[in-house]
# Entry
Amino acid sequence: MNRIILIDGENLNRAIRNLAGSVESPVPRDRLDGFNYKKLIDDVLGDKTKAQIFFFGARLRKYDFDEEILAQSTESIRLQAKLVNNLQKQGISFIKLGYLRAREGKPCQKCGHSKWNLTEKGVDVGLAVRMVTEAGPNTEIVLFSADTDLLPAVKTAVKLGSRVIFVGYEYQPALALSKVATITRLITAPIVKKYLNTEVVDDPSTSSGPDGK
# Structure
């Protein structure tokens, strides 16, 4: 049976930051520099079965509505470039889907200033399509995400004959996904803390696949 690992990138990175710190006070994004995703995956799954690993993230662009959103979007591009480089060293393909949307928030009642926020759009849809496309009796799908919007895709993959391993987070187990998946694994804080700021070397054991972008 072939194994394919599908990772909702922003969902996983948010969980890593929360587990390394707390939901109320996650560790800064730069603490993920050099994070060893491959060892985390092996640790959680408990084996080193050969697999294609795909890490899904948004297409980025700069927004210049004001200096604040320009700085935010520029920093997002910088961090994504470092992330992609780190993933490539580990044999993990980064797949760009959807986009990062800039949304203007409500004006402050005191000063009238509106803060812009960046939100991913379309990544979960693209991941769901990939899951259903890959599904079949000879394919085991490992899903790293606690996004319940992926529930229909998981149900479809199981109906098509795939063995689905759902990987969630101890503070957000996503029971709806756990109920329909074949197996559930949870990422815990001690596991995450083992792989923060660790040295990563090129890992030839995992194929990056033909469609990394």
Notes: The first strand starts at residue 2 and ends at 8. Residues 104 and 116 are 4 Å apart (CA to CA). The domain at 2-194 is CATH 3.40.50.1010 (Rossmann fold).
